[in-house]
Amino acid sequence: MRVGSRSWARARGGTLAAVAAQRARDEQGPELVGQVLLYPPIDPAAQTESKERYREGPILTGAAADQCWGRYVPAAGDRESALAVPSKAESLAGLAPALVLTVELDPSRDEAEAYGRALRDAGVPTQIVRIPGLIHAALNMSGCVPRTSELTDAIVAFLAPRFASAARSVSQA
């Protein structure tokens, strides 16, 4: 499977993080303290209300999202692989705890939240947090959109206790 250019891969950070967590589980490490999935596009074939509602944006349109998927995974047949589409995994059990962070005005919102519910249903400790009124890629605009602090605050609140616990475990070893 060929994955597209790095610039497009960066746009798929949440997707890549979800796949990396699955690989860490399946390949016996590294042990992860958590996974932060920031407005991740999960499945190009997902038919959701948010994809329909926000197909013309703001910021991310349906056409742009399709183009991103086409560059991320150029061969349509590869989109059946869990290495590209994390929701295609045979099992989600045993993954690291997850924070699925979505924003209201985003075509990928509903598929990301559905993935979070699937993680929870598989027994993975999962927090699903939707930030109202923000758009896809809002964090990239943190210099001019003060409310992006809600995203970073949620990430810090999720990761801080996990890193502290991991640090205690290492110091006691």
TrEMBL record:
The keyword Hydrolase applies. InterPro entries: AB_hydrolase_3, AB_hydrolase_fold. Residues 13-138 form the Alpha/beta hydrolase fold-3 domain. Keywords: Hydrolase. One of its GO terms (molecular function) is hydrolase activity. This is Alpha/beta hydrolase fold domain-containing protein. It comes from Pseudonocardia lutea.
